[in-house]
Amino acid sequence: RTMVALSRRTGILLCPEGAAALAAVPAHARRGLLGPKDDVVVFHTATGRKYREAWEEASTMTGSAGWPGRV
């Protein structure tokens, strides 16, 4: 879901591992592991273009249009 949501907002095609790292931030904040004044940096060095199957599955789960990239 994070892959699709960020793509809709920013146009960035996240890979599954980048999306998992980004999704962990609010989850850790809810658990109290991150505070409101903590700085968090998520390095995203891959591309979602390598993961067409993951994009199609995430799109099905979220009801979005599907594969956003060109092959």
Per-chain topology:
Blueprint: H1 2-10, H2 16-30, H3 52-62
Query: Class by helix and strand content?
Result: mainly alpha
Low-confidence stretches: none
Order of helices and strands: HHH
What gap, in angstroms, lies between the N and C termini?
22 Å
Overall geometric form: elongated
Average pLDDT works out at: 79
Largest sheet: none
| Count of alpha/pi helices | 3
Chain oligomer state: single chain
Residue share in helix:
40-55%
Structure description:
This protein is mainly α. The chain has 3 helices and no strands. The protein has helices spanning 2-10, 16-30, 52-62. It is elongated and about 35 Å long. The protein starts with a helix and ends in a 9-residue tail after the last helix.
Keywords, please?
3 helices; mainly alpha
Précis, in short:
With 71 residues, the protein is an all-alpha fold. The chain has helices at residues 2-10, 16-30, 52-62.
